[in-house]
Protein 1
Amino acid sequence: MATARPAPDRSLTDVPVLEKLDGLLLRQLAARMGAAPLRYALGRLTVDPPAGPPVATLRFQDRRALLGLLLDPEVRFGDAYAEGRIEVEGDLVAALEQAYRTLPEGRANPLAWLRTFRRHSPPRSRANVHHHYDLGNDFYTLWLDEQLLYTCAYFESPEQSLEQAQVAKMDHVCRKLGLQPGETVVEAGCGWGALALHMARAYGVRVRAYNLSREQVAWARDRSRREGLADRVEFVLDDYRAIRDRCDVFVSVGMLEHVGRRSYRELGRVISRSLDPERGRGLLHFIGRDRARPLNAWIRRRIFPGAYAPALAEVERRVLWPERLVTVDVENLRPHYALTLRHWRERYERAAAEGRVGRDERFRRTWRLYLAGSEASFRTGSLQLFQVLFAPTRSSGVPWTRRELYAPGPGLSWNAPTS
Amino acid sequence: MATARPAPDRSLTDVPVLEKLDGLLLRQLAARMGAAPLRYALGRLTVDPPAGPPVATLRFQDRRALLGLLLDPEVRFGDAYAEGRIEVEGDLVAALEQAYRTLPEGRANPLAWLRTFRRHSPPRSRANVHHHYDLGNDFYTLWLDEQLLYTCAYFESPEQSLEQAQVAKMDHVCRKLGLQPGETVVEAGCGWGALALHMARAYGVRVRAYNLSREQVAWARDRSRREGLADRVEFVLDDYRAIRDRCDVFVSVGMLEHVGRRSYRELGRVISRSLDPERGRGLLHFIGRDRARPLNAWIRRRIFPGAYAPALAEVERRVLWPERLVTVDVENLRPHYALTLRHWRERYERAAAEGRVGRDERFRRTWRLYLAGSEASFRTGSLQLFQVLFAPTRSSGVPWTRRELYAPGPGLSWNAPTS
């Protein structure tokens, strides 16, 4: 009785029939990726792109990683990359950019759609914020600018440093809003407080700034005391829904992504009841899209639970229109976020190479992929960055032109008569 | 047998009981107008505003005009004014502005809503256009600028002349689009052709410009021949739906108001199939609102049949998003349209005073009210003017900043890399 059995010292992947299967899967993946100039590799097998040299190689450490990618590319790619079961040899951003450009954005998973309508109760919002923003200020200090701005910068020219561009962003926002000394500002979602402090220091306004992250608020209060601004800036550890202030200016930079679509109407109500109907104006700065789509599933699962990047139409329709807040100006800063992310990633990689990003390898690779993938998303147009400037429809003064934004001085003038 | 009958030579309005009724109606009107500083008068009766001096007096020539205003203010006021049965003594624009500010914008008539979804077939569009734009070029020459631009101007400063501001508007549009010599432009709804000719002359582009108005196209072709631009600008007497060109730039100034909401998706498809996916960009300039509302009923009936001023959200949602065209920049020029209309009205009144506006008194009063009412609408925020700049989401070059728009040179650069 002769039964053919593999020699006990040969691993499964060495069996030719499985190698055939691997080849099949690799070619299947290559077919899905169409013209993307990527090479795919597993063991000693490689599949080259249909034309031209590859910008990078996707190397699979095992068949499971390859299979996973074919079954559920969004989540499985991220997890397999984080676990080191997929390696990208070559330029990670360029590889992701090619993938994003090539892959048809299929229909979104209906469950993912449903989830975007999930209610963001204050406790859930707090949990979501805690997941991301309370990773420890030390961690963010490694790769953000010195003032810890964790939102898109504004590079007056691409050569500016990240530090300069973050200050330029704050000034761009303040000058769009035409802040006048003595005015009152409410900021919803203030991060580590840089903008609130900048507004008080450089524009002479009084600010109440809201944030759900305990670590960030502690940091911001400490800084505000050190800089002698505590009498003009109040940091409130609370939800934006708790805002009851009356103000001249409402500003929110990088919070809308976490508000949840079901709460857009409520955000609009909060803005509307805060703003002075005659002199009031506001600005929303947020990651958006060209149309409604759930955010990448892996990002939602591993990085930003509950996050959603809205289409401009959704913000117009749900936040502003029901409250008769009218858009005065919209600027799309997409290329600026790509460049901001490149700066962050370079600093992050430097810190990682120097062993300063603690935690385990999986964490380090997760954040590498998140930063690289975000940069690729802004480069390809999967994500956009909108700044929307608005005012109550019947308010009196609308800026005459935007010229003052690009000239010395305090920026737009909101006090001119309407004609 | 003594029956009390009024003496046959006394008219009805002299009968005290009817005078009592008139007083009742006048007070009813005054109550509806709340705090608006207006005086109401019929015969020898007057009702003063609750506080302060009136900015104007609404004088009713007969009871029917007053009753009509109470029953159906939008349409009846316009018609009664046109027929001279209501006279506004004092500043007409200020009076209308006060009325717009005071009157709660009630729920829109459901029928009016339905009508905004009416299909704009090409023949209907042609009829609508004919109603307004084929009143005779001579008529428009009386009160538009010398190049006959019948859309919102852009006043670099409020002191500019209308002529200067219309040239500045054309340059503002061209510079937002960053026109480069040799590029191809499609213009949908070109009026008397001023923008198309300006683009070809000052920016060296080739233009195909579409319009449904026979009189306007004849005028534009004639001008183009006289100015030696006929080889670079082609005026096409056709509907925007007939556009089959491929182009670098799609521009439409003041046409969207006439497209009809049901055709927004189709307009989006036309834009999308026209634009080069890599280099393409476009601009829509249109009268809009802070939220969806049918246009004033009298304007729809007497001035612009089929017209609709959309909310920004509607244009985003129906024209741009389905085609993955993403907004790069939005500017609200509301105060500029108020000032444009003031210039038009002053010229119009001068021409009317000199007996140069032919036709009958009803026509002259209709147009006076239309121009004054439009100015008041832009002053109060009932109407807005949006310029929306957009590009295919995946196009390569997005302008880095808007600074170039406010500096010498050709305007925004669309060829820079995304980061």
Protein 2
Amino acid sequence: MSDPTYEFYWEDFTTGFVREFGPVTVEAAAIVDFARQFDPQPFHLSEEAGRASLFGGLAASGWHTASLTMRLMCDGIINKSASLGSPGLEGLKWLKPVLAGDQLRARMIVLGSRPMNSKPHVGLVHTRWETLNQRDELVMTIESWAMFRRRTPGTPPAA
Amino acid sequence: MSDPTYEFYWEDFTTGFVREFGPVTVEAAAIVDFARQFDPQPFHLSEEAGRASLFGGLAASGWHTASLTMRLMCDGIINKSASLGSPGLEGLKWLKPVLAGDQLRARMIVLGSRPMNSKPHVGLVHTRWETLNQRDELVMTIESWAMFRRRTPGTPPAA
């Protein structure tokens, strides 16, 4: 089942594995474009409404911040890995507003891993994602599980 | 602080409040467009790669499903309410693939609420979101807290 074109398989994501990706600049036009499609609340649609809100400026939808983080993860590591998707998130925190002009980086930290008993060629990886701005402030954190193809199906976990 | 143009304030979201919104059809072109921007994994980019994956067809990014659900929530209730954003999610499960052509509905269920002690004009609402497809299968669930302006600042919770 192993595909030699991937750099990372399940076995490579051992506890303590850390990588950081980005930055990407969050443009005002992209904030408004995302909000018009998916989250048309006033504080995501105009600088004026953003300034009048708890956010203090034109603020990206939390789903936009998550999606931009996903893109950084795809470009940085997921598309170099034998990724098989994710069953979900254990938690997601939007800690600070992401405002127009902010520069975001994404950090992936592996918290643990285990084989998937029902599918011998698949393993699960428990990760924490951190999204940081240009002031090194955490703007979003995620804890999730992701599925990756195993380099060697059916063997015990490398960790 | 009360704005008479809103239909729903914090006090209106009492435990057991349920509403359902949609449907929206998930078009193949929209799946690919979202994936190109935010989640360019092969199974989100082509029918062929989707069929070869665990998803069994061209599958929407989980972030796309969440964003589409947010849009249903905005159109159905959030933009009729004194919404102030969300501090995060307690959990999110992607339970089934969302494939091209699927029709999604979103259900909001209020699990509980409490005032925000630090801001007397703001209250928190604990909600469960369910996203269902045209076969009434749950494809995604979310548990989260959201902030809403109070109709009457500083009074005890209505519930």
Protein 3
Amino acid sequence: MKLSFIATKIGAELKGEDLEVSSLTSLDQATEEDLSFVESRQYLPQARASKARALIVPPELAQELEDGRSLLIAPQVRVAWAKAAALFWKEPPRPSGISPLAVIEEGVQLEPGVTVYPFVYIGRQARIGKNSVLYPGVFVGEGAQIGQNCRLYPYVVLYPGVRLGDHVTLHAGAVVGADGFGYAQEIGPQGLKHLKIPHFGTVEIGPEVEIGANSCVDRGTFGATKIGPGTKIDNLAQIGHNVEIGEAAIIVAQCGLGGHARLGPWVMMGGQVGVAPGAEIGARAQIAAKSGVTGKIPPEAEVAGIPAIPIRIWRKAVVAFAKLPDMVKDWQKLKKLWGGKSEL
Amino acid sequence: MKLSFIATKIGAELKGEDLEVSSLTSLDQATEEDLSFVESRQYLPQARASKARALIVPPELAQELEDGRSLLIAPQVRVAWAKAAALFWKEPPRPSGISPLAVIEEGVQLEPGVTVYPFVYIGRQARIGKNSVLYPGVFVGEGAQIGQNCRLYPYVVLYPGVRLGDHVTLHAGAVVGADGFGYAQEIGPQGLKHLKIPHFGTVEIGPEVEIGANSCVDRGTFGATKIGPGTKIDNLAQIGHNVEIGEAAIIVAQCGLGGHARLGPWVMMGGQVGVAPGAEIGARAQIAAKSGVTGKIPPEAEVAGIPAIPIRIWRKAVVAFAKLPDMVKDWQKLKKLWGGKSEL
Amino acid sequence: MKLSFIATKIGAELKGEDLEVSSLTSLDQATEEDLSFVESRQYLPQARASKARALIVPPELAQELEDGRSLLIAPQVRVAWAKAAALFWKEPPRPSGISPLAVIEEGVQLEPGVTVYPFVYIGRQARIGKNSVLYPGVFVGEGAQIGQNCRLYPYVVLYPGVRLGDHVTLHAGAVVGADGFGYAQEIGPQGLKHLKIPHFGTVEIGPEVEIGANSCVDRGTFGATKIGPGTKIDNLAQIGHNVEIGEAAIIVAQCGLGGHARLGPWVMMGGQVGVAPGAEIGARAQIAAKSGVTGKIPPEAEVAGIPAIPIRIWRKAVVAFAKLPDMVKDWQKLKKLWGGKSEL
């Protein structure tokens, strides 16, 4: 692939010879035929040592990297290399059409270009959009709807009636639409009993959403659990019933969102965060990994801790926390010293 | 469905006309044909704005809601509406009988009314009770036993020999009976080696248990991991080997219970709690989300934090935690001020 | 099985009669035909009460247990009983050969002794080593390689191209090789957009690795995510893209390792630990359950907390934490008392 072609596609400026490159990879793995990239100044030594034939670089590093190699100068380097990588990406080849070893119940609509691998089960009245791929063992419940160009990896489970937009990717083992965790506590003569609350609702997943392996999105009690367009969810995350997530949120692995939690658009959440049932997180808020969110987090806020507090306070508080043993010692001495003279 | 019929079934008193309602839903989603419910005073404005034809309400709100609509007055509203919802719930229709695309090994006992979907695998000598449903791809290991009226959703895996009571529900991807995480650390010439400890034990799941999607319950090393009757476990939870959980516990998503942990009856546990191996939690204790439990928690206790402490102390301590940066500053000033005069 | 035979196999010294035992189990479950074991002094009362015909014991307890029973004296008792247990362990019988209900694409290499259960899917050019077992519903992506004597339990998913060493065990629902969670944030006119970064890399899993049910190991962006020989990973763990784990690490359930994290050999990690992207943990370091690791943890260190600090400080700090409410009260009094006389 010619550098000039790549430059056009990724919106970069080519400086140097218009060479051919055969793939894109990291600085340390690049051979003399590869294109690589320099995200920031800290990678300069690696960049100089790299065998890469050409580099994608930000404008501010272009001069320092002029060593005869061709450069693709791009202001958003990470975006530029992601786009370049997409040019080199080849989806693994796949059989087209419907495997005779799949089970497709009555009334299913399959649009053209759909691939259905063996051992897929599609319940009645389900609808699969154009060019979507159902890998082995995908389960599509009755009446579920899948948009166009979706990828459902092995053993994805869609409970009945859930709806996916276009270009949705669900990784292996993801479960969409299981019952929410809702019970009514009946106080009876033999103690507490948990009556199951039936879940009449569904799940609506917007276009361009990606959900990681073995993650779970529960159906609403009434109404839908909603995941906004472009939201990306990592592996092993739990999205409770009637949660609503706005556009383009980022939810890292093992986060858990309690029922009815609401996330505005562009919320970013580190790994293993817990969000209490009904909590609200404003647009663009950032939640540090392992935090526990309760109540309301305002838009743009950055929070951390259990319960989550503003991250600038949290950062100081955890430093102080490590000094607590010393403080306690002093505090006890102080109490003794001033014991006779004060209320301490 | 007539309101008088519902009133009888849910133990409510009908006030107003004996109308027909066509379904039960939330206040905001209800149409003029629906029944809805008012759980507490905070929903009064929504109740007044709702189009619902009739409402389930607690006695103390009945008078305030007298606006011509029919009311079903019930002391435990949540229990009442859960029961009413169950009246309207229709299990999705399913084929009856055994799919020819399932594999059933020798010596399997299937009681009448069992549904086995395609791609199910049932190992030798397994036993499936009356009216139980095995959705596509359920794996039942050799000698495993499933009670009556169980629902095993797609890709539930039962390792050999595990036992489920009646009316057990396992959501998609739940794994019951994998080996516990047990190794013996052998100190050898090349360093530490982890020798696998074989797991001879099993898992016993009581009646009326529900386990969420992608949750895991490990088999015992010797003897059984036990989950008491009526216990409800959410998605992505981990139950270690030889854990024993009492009756009607509630375990929210992503909790992890270490090997040999013991939970009394009616324990309630928020999401993402960790319980150390061998820890003991007394009856009716409540563990706040994200806590880390070690040692023994007495019955009825309410705890929070890592490690878990009484929640009323924890609540104050986390408020104080956010003030730590200021306290440290004062503490340092104080040490300086009194440095010459005291041991501080 | 004769005690003398067991003694030879586990490196123990037989004291007493060379009896036959029929199985190995725990002290409380043992019958008069069984062998059991005493790991430490705290189990002496149970040992005395046990019906076990013979006991594996450490040298320091041998004398106290001389009550006529035969003893197998072994310095590393836990290692000894694990080895003895392995002698009694019988892998469940399985059909040999390839199920006609499995789908095996072109160019797949199956070495002798491989078992392929029904509903397995093996993609093109994949390679399965001698005596490996693929339980029902295992998915092997194109070009993936599986070593000898591996056990892949139901619904294990190997994405294309991943590689497993010999004697690898993957429990049900484990997913190896899904895309890492990598996006480039493109700032566009309609707000932030997350561009997917294609994942060209793979996963390399060393020999003797065991991975628990529903755990996930993501593929590298470029290059491989690597799991060292003999490492054991529990259920529901998340291993991010390009993570490198050394030899014989222990990772308990629900841990999450961010992208590019590095763990030296023999690292041990309690449950629900989070490791930040790019963090480094030195050889033999021990991370307490629920900790949050950032930056660098030196070899041999023992840490705890969020963020993780040396465990001996953390232990004191959490004690102090519970006293914070009192400290704050005193601190406020102090500020009032000395308010006129100092800067406090």
